[in-house]
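Researcher: We are triaging several targets before committing to wet-lab work. For this one, the compound of interest is flavin-adenine dinucleotide. I'm pasting the protein sequence and the ligand SMILES. What I need is the predicted three-dimensional arrangement of the protein with the ligand bound, expressed as structure tokens, so it can go straight into our comparison scripts without reformatting.
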Amino acid sequence: MSGAIAAQVLVVGGGPGGYVAAIRAGQLGLDTVLVEADRLGGTCLIRGCIPSKALIHAAGRFAEASDGGVLGIAAAPKLDLKKTIAWKDGIVDRLNSGVAGLLAHAKVPVIEGWATFSDAKTCTVETKDGPVSVTAEHVILAAGSEATPLPVLPFGGNIISSTEALNIDALPRHLAVVGAGYVGLELGIAFRKLGAEVTVIEAADRILPRYDAALTRPVRRWLERNKVTLHLGAKVTGLDGDGRLAIATAKGETLALAADKILVTVGRRPRTEGWGLEAMGLDMVGPFVKVDDQCRTAMRNVWAIGDLVGEPMLAHKASAQGAMVAEIIAGHRRRFDSASVAAICFTEPEIVVAGLSPDEAKAAGEDIITGQFPLSANGRALTLEAGEDGGFVRVVARKGDQRVLGIQAVGRGIAELAGESAHALAMGATLEDIAGTIHVHPTLGETVGEAALLALGRGLHI
Ligand SMILES: Cc1cc2nc3c(=O)[nH]c(=O)nc-3n(C[C@H](O)[C@H](O)[C@H](O)COP(=O)(O)OP(=O)(O)OC[C@H]3O[C@@H](n4cnc5c(N)ncnc54)[C@H](O)[C@@H]3O)c2cc1C
């Protein structure tokens, strides 16, 4: 493709924000083009959510096979990591071509190449066949995010980001993980399960510092039980002369750690450089493009979505914003409500958060009641070996009208409760709505009903 193209809608970025925006715009009959420089699917499908969950699943299978003693199962599994990575790549390829098929079905042409804007509505895409100039009535920016490097540990060689960790061809003997947010811990735990020695270094005084402390305790216990070394309140200062990782510990000591891979997961930053954002005259908020609750930027008919516009940097938020913007362009009345955007840490055990934690609700001036139900009192949890690690489900509600403000949970296999939690918040459910829902037995979902009953003061199974 070369030359000049004019479209109603130009979407830049084929991640879960951009490709969903483009599909929805196409479905609504808008003449739409999508520009993607890399592979369709973006961070999520190619180097984020999907490949990480594939590796986490494989690591879980390996660990379960290695350690079924208590169930009376004994096996000695062998790891063929190249095959594991090939399996993961197969899933990525399948989803990547699936997205291409969906875009074609929605009649959205894809221009492969890097887009650079000369003004807010015009960009040039460097394709393999030459430059293509695209102008559009509406522009949807979905450029996503990239791993934040540490100045003292620039990426390269043995210093890797999550992208390289997900494509590793040999199991590191010793993996150092710098940053105990969800990406670092998900991958650190997976590599530990596969047999690597793992050390985690975190500047804050606890793991998963963005999460409610009570939810993170079972994860911390797992790390300790499984001999993951934790340095909390510690800072990496670089590599020493022997290539070892230099750490200033909380106690003021200096450590030198010999790790054969150093995974740096200190966060992600919006991709705001290299594509002419500065020529577009948009307002910013911190490092992010500033948008309102309809994802409008400061420039008329220029929209921005997903990781580019701020936290939470999550795939489903990006997709929801993408679909919404396409519908607004097509004339629908929509607004983005972040209240029901749930998040999961696929750690061991898993954490689910939706809506407000008790502290957040109080900080927002709410008078609240809570109900917290332990997984150890749920039959299904016990059959899944999920009852012994301190897991629980908690419901937070407004005292006055008993409207549910938040649901949080930690426990093995608890990720599946994210759907029910988001649904309850999106529907504006009250405690009675949840307590009155007949949850299927035996499932982990029963714990949500029990937590609501506890908040109402009439718990049944505790
Ligand atoms: C290891 C890891 C695990 C994760 N796990 C989860 C998870 O379990 N659940 C979850 O919800 N989220 C997860 N995320 C986050 C999730 O991947 C992102 O929130 C999501 O991909 C953001 O979508 P997006 O469309 O905004 O941007 P991206 O997915 O980053 O896509 C942006 C796309 O735009 C393209 N692009 C940018 N600029 C240009 C340009 N100028 N021209 C052409 N193309 C351009 C890029 O090549 C890229 O493909 C994870 C992330 C990582 C790194």
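Researcher: Any quick observations?
Model: The first helix runs from residue 16 to 27.
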